[in-house]
Amino acid sequence: MKVTFVYPDFFQYPDGTFMPEGRIYLGIACLSAVLKKAGHETSLVHVVEPPTREWLVERVHSEQPDLVGFSSTTHMFRHVARWADWLRDGMDVPAACGGVHPTIATQEVIDTRGIDFACIGEAEDTIVELCDALQQGKDPSGIPGLWAKASDGSISRNPARALRTDLDELPFPDRSIFDPDLFCADQHPRGTLMASRGCPFDCTYCSNHAQKSVYPNPKDYVRFRSPENVVAEIVQMVEADRRIEYIRFDDDILTTDREWFARLSELYKERVGMPFICNSRVNFMDEKMAKGLADMGCEVVCMGIESGNSWLREKVLNRHMSNEQIMRAFELCRNAGMKTVSTNMFGLPLEETRMVLDTIKINGLCHPDTIQVSTFIPYPSTELFHLCEEKGLIEGERVDSIFAGRSPLKPASKGWEDKQAKANFHTLAYTYGRLNDIHPAAAGQLGARIIDSLVLGTRASSARRFAFERLTAWADGRFQPEWIKY
Ligand code: B12
Ligand code: SF4
Fold first, then answer.
1. Distance 82 CA to ligand 2 centre (A)
2. pTM of the entire structure?
3. pLDDT tens digits, residue range 182-229?
4. Domain final residue pick, 157, 179, 198
């Protein structure tokens, strides 16, 4: 049985331009590994730019698959739906779709023409059982974790199977399925892996709690591979690809379990010793952890701030951390010699312009080396999606990127101030941070007052607009954010 995965990997902006990603995706690499182990064949159509109908049909057809396997995030599903439709007209092969979107919006996926199977959750066991059944001419409609559409259109809906608890039982991801020629430049020196699965938190905008809720054993959602198993994979990966210069741990949070992390650290230093990048969370960052990360070889640590407004963070985003804790975490990382990346959102439901300013200010005080700012997108089945629905905020189409400055939420009509705050996020953050460096005591208030009075106000006067534009134009040239790989 041959499975050809189709993986969409680009951002297309509303004006039709696109940005290719060209990165390895471990979800498909994991499935390819188990399928090969079970005696099946796999291949990949890695789609790094929006394809034409002819190209896609011809390309997939040339693989002669017995099953087409689409992988989709929520952003990419509008493309996948179109492609499934094209392939259904162009060739007579069953198609399955898995990934985060089918997990949290299964009905939408199975209702799509050209998709015969929608897979819920982690699928190492599901896909092997599906391929075995199709190969043996058996009815796949009872396979756990699979929704199957019969030729008469009827749908069998099987709930997600229990999460595997021992990740060491899985083979290492099959990276060979990816063609390095299609990778974007920063992918080549990077060895990407995940040492764990899941996240213990339930931030309302993140799809983790929605994904966790589909499983019959949600308490097992956070799982760690043994440090020995993780390091063995890294060693194998680095030996197989001599271009790798640093490691990227893609885990949601690498530092959740201190004991496990300490063992990983020892083994990593002993057997790998390469610089690495990872994600952490401010509430896991203390002096010992920051030093431990740096000592292990961490060069860049990414942590979410998301909003600088305590009320919004606590009550709307379900993120329980104080401003002081956030600032301290960034300071500790900086003092330990690591670069930092903060991730932030705006366009949140119930967010007001002054709250965007709070996010700007806290970034100024944290001094991250890179500030990532994205527009909030409501993901299906998340708490924040339900809140947006309840409040009647969703009206537009899904967008491909969190960086296009658009979202399916009704445009907030907060006017000039709001737009300027968002458009000048980096400049304002750096200006505020610099004012604070010069004179923390005075600048804390003065800087805040300058920024607030320039940006905030129900109706900006032309003098204030003029002053604001002059300030941002001046500061723009001085506070260029550093672009670091993460
Ligand atoms: C690596 C990663 C990326 C990679 C790869 C993206 C991808 N396709 O997953 C890159 C860098 C491209 C990326 C970009 C973005 N990402 Co990202 N990313 C991740 C991350 C950290 C790990 C994904 C991963 O490898 N998991 C490990 C594998 C083993 O698990 P898995 O992906 O769930 O795969 C299993 C099943 O889903 C299933 N499966 C997957 N594919 C298929 C196919 C078939 C046929 C079948 C049957 C089954 C199946 O089997 C797999 C093995 O068990 C996740 C968070 C996470 N913890 O999962 C976020 C996550 C996927 N990203 C997210 C987001 C929001 C983004 C960005 C918007 C962020 C940004 N910076 O711009 C972009 C959008 C990308 C896009 N085009 O849609 C969200 C997606 C939310 C949603 N509803 O879509 C996630 C879930 C984070 C979160 N918790 O909210 N991301
Ligand atoms: S801590 Fe990060 S990964 Fe975990 S639920 Fe919150 S946003 Fe998602």
1. 30
2. 0.95
3. 999 989 999 999 999 999 999 999 999 999 999 999 999 999 999 999
4. 157
